[in-house]
Amino acid sequence: MIKNIVFDIDRTLVDSYECEMNSLKKAIQKSVSRKFPEEIFEKLTVLPTKEFFQLLKLSPNEIKKVNKEWDIEYKKNPPKCFRGIKSLIKDLQKEYRVSILTSRTLEEFQELEEELKEIQKHFDVVVTSDQVSKPKPHPESMQKLYEEYAYVPEETVYIGDSEIDYYMARYAKCHFIQAIWDNDSVEHTCFVAKNPRDIQEIVRNIK
User: Fold this and answer.
1) Is CATH 3.40.50.1000 the classification given to domain 4-15+80-205?
2) Which of 28, 43, 178, 189 is the most core-located residue (most Cβ within 10 A)?
3) The pTM is what?
């Protein structure tokens, strides 16, 4: 029986893809003289920001400029929780321990406080990428929940949108539900949620 539900943030709780992608592109255009292929920006959804900048081979000075411009552009159109997420989290916390495990750093997570403020009190734990030495898909983040908060793998389900989320759950030996309300590419999993409303029924039926 499931006792612990752990959520990814981006494209799972928060509709961040378009606003982050568009604001980052604008920031890079303003701060970096060279151009990058369109497909490389898709990596932003699965890599921590630090690793994404390494992929672009940005210098420390360029990263500083990009981050400054990115913050300006991002605040013009901040992300919002997906429809149905706030009521889902409030209902889930009545029956389960509900937590967050994200590739965002603590600072990047705090940038979402305005969007998450209505539901943040319902999360038992938040694990960010800078709290571990090996972020997703390595299972260290989930192992932190096992070791420090007594989560048990077979009683835990991770909900995320990407293949990296799937593999992290697989390596951590917990259950996985793929959220496809903002991403219709189904990975290697038998549990798929097309809408936040699907989560409760799926969780109840996980054996």
Assistant:
1) yes
2) 178
3) 0.80
